[in-house]
UniProtKB/TrEMBL annotation:
Alphabetized PANTHER family for the sequence: CHAPERONE DNAJ C-TERMINAL DOMAIN-CONTAINING PROTEIN (PTHR24078:SF574), DNAJ HOMOLOG SUBFAMILY C MEMBER (PTHR24078)
GO CC terms of this entry: cytosol
GO biological process, one term: protein folding
Lineage, uppermost ranks: Eukaryota, Viridiplantae, Streptophyta, Embryophyta, Tracheophyta
Protein name, per record: Chaperone DnaJ C-terminal domain-containing protein
C-alpha cells in the first residue's frame, strides 16, 4: 500500500514498555540552487510490517521534505515512527535525513558566502575590461574593471551570497577571485616590447 505523509509524526510514548529501535540516517543531496531558493522533495521509503494475517508485507511511504532557503550541509530533518521492520514489542523507528551539498561547477560555499574564480586574459588584466559575473540566484551581473588585476586579486559583492538559515532575507557575500591567463609563448619582438613598456 502507498501512504503519503507531510511533516513529522507524534512521538510514540514508551509508557507501555515497548522498545524503540535506533534511528536510521539517510543522506539528502541538494544542489546549491535548491539550498538558495528552497524546494520541496518527495522521498519514498519502504519498510516490512506485519499484516493483520501475521504475514510480513512491504509498505511504501512518501515523505515530503520542505527544504528551506539557506539550509547547510549537516542540517537534520527527523520523521518519527517511520522506518525499520516492525517486530512484536517494538515500535517503528525514526528516520533522519541529513542534508549534503552537491558539488557545483562554478561556486563554492563558505558558510553564507559564495566564492567564484574567473580567469581573464593578461591583456584585460592590465588594460581593464567589461565582465559578466554569473550569479547563483540570478543570471549575470555586469561590471567594469579599470584597475590592474594581479593573480589573487579579489572583489566582494555584498548581499550576493547564500541566504542566512535563520534570516533568509539576509544574504552573505559573493567573493570573486581572479586568475590571470598568461600567454603560452612570445616572440623576441614581443618580449622586447613588453620589456620596454614595463621598464618605463
Amino acid at each position: 500500500m502507498n501512504v503519503s505523509r507531510s511533516g513529522p509524526m507524534i512521538m510514540f510514548s514508551n509508557s507501555s514498555g515497548m522498545l524503540k529501535p535506533p534511528a536510521t540516517e539517510k543522506q539528502l543531496e541538494c544542489t546549491l540552487e535548491e539550498l538558495y531558493h528552497g524546494c520541496v522533495k518527495h522521498i519514498k521509503v519502504s519498510r516490512d510490517v506485519f499484516s493483520i494475517t501475521g504475514q510480513i508485507v512491504q509498505e511504501d511511504e512518501v515523505l515530503t521534505v520542505n527544504i528551506k532557503p539557506g539550509w547547510k550541509t549537516g542540517t537534520r530533518i527527523t520523521f518519527q515512527g517511520i522506518i525499520k521492520e516492525e517486530r512484536q514489542g517494538e515500535y517503528p523507528g525514526d528516520i533522519i535525513f541529513v542534508v549534503t551539498e552537491k558539488h557545483h561547477p562554478l561556486f563554492r560555499r563558505m558558510d553564507d558566502d559564495l566564492e567564484l574564480e574567473i580567469e581573464i586574459p593578461m591583456v584585460d588584466a592590465l588594460t581593464g575590461c567589461n565582465l559578466y559575473i554569473p550569479l547563483l540566484g540570478k543570471d549575470k551581473m555586469s561590471m567594469r574593471i579599470d584597475e590592474i588585476i594581479y593573480p589573487g586579486y579579489e572583489k566582494t559583492f555584498v548581499g550576493q551570497g547564500m541566504p542566512n538559515q535563520k534570516n533568509p532575507h539576509h544574504k552573505g557575500n559573493l567573493k570573486v577571485k581572479f586568475l590571470v591567463a598568461y600567454p603560452n609563448s612570445l616572440t623576441d619582438e614581443q618580449r622586447s616590447e613588453i620589456f620596454r613598456i614595463l621598464s618605463n
